[in-house]
Fold this protein.
Amino acid sequence: MTAGQQVSAGTDTGSGHGRDAGEELVHRLPALLEALDGKVSGMLQQIGSRSPHRTENGLYDDCRHDWWTSGFWPGMLWLMYGLTGKESYREAAAPWDGRLEQCFVQPSNLHHDVGFQFLPTAVLHYKLLGDSEGRRRGLAAANFLAGRFNLAGRFLRAWNQEKAGWAIIDSCMNLSLLYWASAELADPRFAQIATAHAETVLQHFVRPDGSVCHIVRFDPASGECLEEIGGQGFGPGSAWSRGQAWALYGFANTYRYTGDERFLAASQRIAHHFLACLPDDSVPLWDFRLPEPAGEPKDTSAAACAASGLLELAKLVPYPQNRLYREAASRILLSLTDGFANLASGREDEQGILREGTGHCPEGVNVNVSLIYGDYFYVEALAKAKGWYPDVF
Ligand code: GLY
């Protein structure tokens, strides 16, 4: 295994008493990973070469390959290959690079999310096995993403159609594709674009209290910042929980690539706000600022993504700060496992791993379902808890 780093699975708490959440998770990991192997093997039988995005009546769909989530299922298979060494996972994951590349040569709606699509597929394939086609495809995706940079506003534009001035918090997670390309080509242009976008997000999206907004609209010609838009959150001024997780994790990655302390501070501030808002079971509602939260849906995908981001933070800061992040991530993962996960293998009627994901609550779309990215980040976080940091993002 050549990708990522191997770090201690221990919790490094410095305390000699009691079993904290980190220790509890480590204790349970062998059985948990065995159950996960059975579950994902079963999913592979059921899903085959379909492109799952969200479940309906317990069954995963078969989504367009240009949809932003198309990299997560193959990415999960690569993670399982890394965790188990089983060839069946590699064989099922490898063809996805070519399938996704077709979106570049046929009419498609690819946009800012090519990082989500090509980092867990082509680039990970290259990192794990040295696949030169994966490298070529990953670099093509990085060029595409770099081409979306708005020079006047210093942001990567979101989506297509009439939204030339829109930037969104989700793009923080796509920056890793640009940093990877710069390192791969020994060419700073991609990293310069990524850092300029991250600085714009820092200035216009991150609030003093550590919450972030989803969408900011700029004048695409002058670059002037015009307004905040609620997007997938409750509204302007709210705190969409998955958006908080994208930002927490994305800024941690940006610090890892740049060593710039401003981005570490941003990730920590966002993490502290996220943790302060969590309910007792450590799994957030879909927005942290709902006027009437009672009965509102949760979003397990936000919890899983945040857990993986918190483990990233725990690796980036020294003891004793790392304890807070590892403990919080472990609490989230234990709660997801015990309260929201279906790890029984061979269940035809419930293909997803995490229940109670929420895709787009304001539009009432994909609410209280399994989401493939929630499942992916759950697996990625467990890999990190075991000590394998695959550095996908
Ligand atoms: N990137 C879109 C979402 O988080 O739903």
Summary: The chain has 13 helices and eleven strands. Residues 7-16 have pLDDT under 50 and may be disordered.
